[in-house]
Amino acid sequence: MLERQWPAGGGQRQLHGPTPDSEFVGFADIVSFIRQRILLIMAFPLLGLLGAGFYLATTDSIYTALTQILIEPKIPQLLQQQSSEINLSLDTSQVETQLAVIRSEKIASMVIAELSLVDNQSFKPLSNPSLAERFERVREIVVNALAPNEGPQVQESPNPTETARDLSEIEGVMAQLSEFKRRRHVVETFRAGLGVQRVGVSYAIDITFTSPDPDLAAKVANATAGAFVREQLETRAAAAREGVAWLEKRMGEMRKQMNLAAQKTQEFRAKHDYSLDRERETAILDGQEVARDVPTLEELEVTAETYRKMYESLLAAFTNSVNQQPYLIADARVITPATRPLVASHPRRKLVLALGVLAGLMVGFGLAFARHSLDRTIRTPRQIRDELGFDCIGELPPMGILRGFGQFDDVLRSPESLFSRNLRSTRAAISLADVTHPLRCIGVTSATPGDGKSMVTSNLAALYAVSGMRTLVIDVDGSHSTLTKSLLQSRKSANENLDRLDGITERIVPVPGLHFDLLPSVVSDANRLITPKNMTALLDELDSYEIIIVDLPPSTSGVYGLAAASVLDGVIIIAEWGKTPLDLVVELSRMLQVTKTSVIGVVMTKVRRLSTRQYLKRSTQTAH
Fold it and tell me: For an engineered disulfide with 521, which of 58, 140, 415, 481 has Cβ 3.0 to 4.6 Å away?
């Protein structure tokens, strides 16, 4: 869940036990998570937007021109009478064949020759600029933006020089290549920019070409469609020419055979021999005489008639082919010619910006969740309740960015500030705390030094004092003595006997401007008030005070430093929001458990995001 990363410890959970709803994530938990990590979450979408802008500013615009052709299907009459499945299979094969023809190198060579693309310097392969080139483009954009008045002059003069230099470099490189390599390079560039796709299951085909030059893209797309139509016509014409040539050759051979057969028939008739009996003639074959039958007049006439009919059939086919050759029609026609594209097809600006923001948002949420999962500091009242088993009785915000957490008398300086209102709510929560003893002697401790323990002690004592209750603060934090040094400044009790416990009440001094009394740390150390026995003896002598607040050492001083807390009515734990480690607070709670100390609750200091702001406002208005 969002509020809990790991359990604080098996013993602690068994001691206090989780609340029934500790395993559920509510809408308030999600809102709290977003509020805590809003800066981290929003930083990455901005970075993603900047990255997308950098990509768009340094990427060349690419244009795509589209032309559309229509294939006229030619299905034989016999196959048209078959099932629709056979027709569909034939149609698909026919269209796929046409797609392969359009992508073929023959069409590429025809377009390259027609547009002279080998010598066209603007016809170059599509490539993404390197990172160094992108930064160089950004530098040029910034320079032009910072010097708008000099921009046109700079662009008028250097551009031709740079263009000439680029052209000379390209010409130098291309000159080193052979004619074959140059042509292969152009063919590969043409294939990389060409796109051929069937429109659904129709006979329409989309031919697209992509180029940095929009005019060139339209020209190449139209030239590709025209080359495909011409290729079909040329193929049909070549086939027709080959058929006519074959017919001419065959007619010549048949003419000779027909004339020879007619000549033999006439020669046979000239002999005036019309007998039906076959004559035999001899011939020499491999040195031997072989007898064979001589054909009759009827056979010669049939042979001559057969050759004549064959010749007439070939003549009719030849005449038909010659007549139809001027009327050859291609099976494809252009239905949508390509025009100059007005908008670049790449990069798609809106999509790139949206993807940049979305990617940044995902990274931001991922890092925020990872940081939240790895964060082991005190941040929310629910975390305190679930991990420690204590109630969060106060959330004290900082008084200002420059002043840090606040001053020792902020409740008197700014009684209507959010800090003062929240501290009054904390005092009300202390009075309602469910402890075993009446709350007269209250201890204040923290897990680490610098959590604001002494600041809370001073302001809480001032609140009790201004309400009319006689209040005493005992500073037993001898290792730091923050209250003594800050409130009494340079006051000392050097002429007093610090070695005796008797007469310690006489060493209590009033704090100027705060209306409560203070027993300095130097007196507490000298009389060893850190021990429960001496603290109990002192508290018995302080019946005149209605509220006694003891500033205890932090848990870093060990269990010995918290021994005096066992004789107090209750102890408040101070934890700095987003800084105090949860494990140290858990260890502090175990120390207090060892000393059999009643814990009133936990007060968070320097809270930048309050979870009970509206509740505190309503409670303050009700109190007034």
Answer: 481
The residues, any chain, with a CB within 8 Å of residue 527's CB and separated by 6 or more, are 498, 500, 501, 504, 534, 538
pLDDT tens string 205-219: 999 999 988 999 999
Parallel/antiparallel/unpaired status of strands 204-211 and 63-71: antiparallel
The pLDDT of residue 2 is: 45
Secondary structure (DSSP) of 410-464: HHHH-TTSHHHHHHHHHHHHHHT---SS-SSEEEEEESSTTSSHHHHHHHHHHHH
pLDDT for position 416: 87
End-to-end CA distance of the chain: 39
Determine the residue type at 379. Answer: R
Give the global pTM.
Answer: 0.57
CA–CA distance, 291 with 299 (Å, rounded to integer): 19
Place of tokens 């309740």: 385
pLDDT attached to residue 289: 58
Running DSSP on this structure, what letter comes out for residue 569?
S
**Residue in 294, 320, 172, 174 with CA at minimum distance from that of residue 240:** 320
Please write the tens of the pLDDT for every residue from 501-560. 456 788 889 988 888 999 998 888 888 888 888 888 888 888 889 999 999 999 888 788
> By three-state DSSP, how is residue 517 classified?
strand
- Which stretches of 234-376 are assigned E, i.e. beta strand? 280-285, 288-293, 332-336
Among 34, 3, 13, 27, residue whose Cα is nearest residue 379: 3
Q: Which one, of 247, 533, 575, lies nearest residue 387 by Cα?
A: 575
> 57, 44, 46, 51: which is closest to 347 by C-alpha?
57
Ramachandran angles phi, psi of 116, nearest 5° = 55, 50
Helix (H) or strand (E) holding 393: strand 392-396
Rounded CA-CA distance 296/265 in Å is: 9
pLDDT tier for residue 572 given thresholds of 50, 70 and 90: very high
Give the span between the Cα atoms of 19 and 329, in whole angstroms.
86
